[in-house]
From TrEMBL:
GO CC list: CURI complex; UTP-C complex
UniProt xrefs under Gene3D superfamilies: 6.10.250.1770
Highest taxon of source: Eukaryota
Ranges annotated as biased composition (Basic and acidic residues): 1-21
Name of the protein: Putative ovule protein
Domain Ribosomal RNA-processing protein 7 C-terminal per the UniProt entry, residue ranges: 65-187
TM annotation in the entry: none
InterPro entries: RRP7, RRP7_C
PANTHER family per record: RIBOSOMAL RNA PROCESSING PROTEIN 7-RELATED, RIBOSOMAL RNA-PROCESSING PROTEIN 7 C-TERMINAL DOMAIN-CONTAINING PROTEIN
BP-aspect Gene Ontology terms: ribosomal small subunit assembly; rRNA processing
Organism lineage string: Eukaryota, Viridiplantae, Streptophyta, Embryophyta, Tracheophyta
Organism: Solanum chacoense
Disordered: annotated span: 1-33
Length: 187
């Protein structure tokens, strides 16, 4: 159709005919593409076929990784309620610890700058009477011993080595006496 149209026009209208022919060819191409597109179009199945490979797998993974708004809202609500329950339990445990025996103790959290009790500004807990007694006993045991200074430690070590050397010499003499009496049996 394009060739017939161009031949019918004379040379003066050659330029306008080319422009017009391009328009016609583009329309024809659009029509041809539209017809070919519907015939060759692949449709994705709903999952009845094998979806373990290729594009179908990717599309299936995409839709499975993005749940709907309702599912997402349910997950968020569930997370928030579980978080609130957890925080409430922690608060009740702290109150129970502070109420026991009337003791309130400041707890040191290494590397932590925040306080856990918003009312008083300190992290609090409780201590039993047995724990207090154990701590007092440990403090009594930590009294300064005889080996407080460095020279005292050196002297104690030197004395210990001298005692071991004297025992070694005594054992050596005894073994020589037994060998002389031929009663030495090492096994």
């Amino acid at each position: 159709t394009v060739d017939h149209y161009v031949e019918a026009n004379d040379d003066s209208d050659q330029k306008s005919a080319k422009d017009h022919s391009l328009t016609i060819t583009q329309d024809n191409l659009v029509e041809k593409r539209g017809q070919a597109g519907y015939e060759e179009m692949d449709e994705l199945s709903s999952g009845d076929e094998d979806c373990s490979k290729g594009m179908r797998k990717w599309v299936l993974d995409y839709y499975q990784s993005r749940p709907g708004l309702k599912v997402l809202q349910e997950r968020i609500d569930e997370f928030i309620t579980s978080y609130e329950v957890k925080k409430e339990q922690e608060r009740k445990e702290k109150e129970a610890l502070a109420a026991e025996d009337g003791w309130t103790v400041v707890i040191h959290h290494k590397g932590r700058k925040k306080t856990t009790d918003s009312e008083t500004g300190i992290a609090v807990g409780s201590v039993s009477q047995a724990a207090v007694m154990d701590n007092m006993d440990k403090k009594k045991k930590k009294d300064v011993g005889l080996d407080f200074y460095r020279f005292q430690k050196r002297e104690a070590k030197r004395n210990e080595i001298m005692v071991l050397q004297s025992k070694f010499e005594q054992d050596k003499k005894r073994i020589q006496q037994l060998r002389a009496a031929r009663k030495f049996r090492p096994y």
